[in-house]
Amino acid sequence: MGSHLFTAKHEHINIxxxxxxxxxxxxxxxxxARALNRxxxxxxxxxxxxxxxxxxxVLDLRGYDYxxxxxxxxxxxxxxxxxxxxxxxxxxxxxxxxxxxxxxGIVVFLYTSLATLRQRISNYTSxxxxxxxxxxxxxxxxxxxxxxxxxxxxxxxxxxxxxxxxTKQIIAxxxx
Length: 176
Description:
The chain is α/β, with parallel strands linked by helices.
């Protein structure tokens, strides 16, 4: 499953993963990176490194608006090709950042149902999820779906599909 599967137009293009927390962006990003022999860039890790703090600490200490601004700053600073980029779930709040990522990449939306996400996520309040005060996970889910769909070049449904099968599905869709 090497990068030879890609046509010439795809071989230097980034693959950008978007979706809700718990949709599998980081774990699928790692599997895709390995399968396609590409570097993985996890933007949550970039934010944590630049702030020298966890995502939750940034949210707790600096607030929601600061977090979104920092995330946008990190995303628009990305200058690479031929990478797998796993974004944070809130990346889609920045039109500037998403348009920047789309210029050099194919955006893959990992769609996961609310019921499945609830099964996967037990630490919603402590895992560094950018949300406005008082928003439940369901509020956040419904608020973000339209934006994910707006930016997606490809949508992959992740419910009831294992990570290795999802990796194969993504590669198949990218090579169509």
